[in-house]
Write a structure and sequence with these properties.
alpha+beta, eight-stranded antiparallel beta barrel, 2 helices
Length: about 160
């Protein structure tokens, strides 16, 4: 084979491989630098701590409350713990929670007591602040101690 033809074939192959390699590298870098948009559920995920205020035995009471939210299949799940030790009746109450966001701003959460011998359930409606660092709103539910429908206010801050 003529030396000139061999050099031309090698040059053509090298040019073709360089072009293919350049396209692959460009696609890889474009995909690597693209960030997934942060969903509101991802902003909610994590631990939130704060207080809840409600009537307890005919007096105003404030209790510490915390939420741990996990995002599963575009739904929020987790647990809520209310510190009721000051009541001297109950220590900590832990609830299974699930819900989601409405209008990217309002968090609707349903809660239930895990104990099958305890009738305790309800709902939280909380508004996410524009900064994404606070949730404020209220709850309504059935209180096993009072044996009636209870309600109160909730103020939470995202724990970093």
């Amino acid at each position: 084979m003529d030396k000139g033809i061999l050099i031309a074939i090698i040059g053509a192959i090298a040019t073709l491989l360089t072009t293919i390699l350049s396209i692959c590298i460009k696609k890889y870098l474009n995909n690597k630098t693209k960030q997934r948009p942060i969903t509101q559920n991802e902003k909610i995920r994590g631990k939130w701590v704060g207080t809840t205020r409600q009537k307890f035995h005919d007096r105003d009471a404030e209790f510490k409350i915390s939420f741990i939210f996990k995002s599963e299949n575009n739904k929020l799940k987790g647990e809520c713990v209310v510190d009721l030790r000051e009541t001297k009746i109950i220590n900590l109450e832990t609830f299974v929670i699930h819900g989601g966001l409405s209008d990217n701003r309002f968090l609707k959460i349903e809660y239930n007591n895990d104990d099958p011998n305890m009738t305790q359930f309800g709902y939280f409606l909380l508004e996410l602040s524009p900064s994404g660092k606070n949730l404020n709103g209220c709850f309504v539910g059935y209180g096993p101690e009072s044996k009636e429908v209870i309600c109160g206010n909730v103020a939470l801050e995202k724990e970093r």
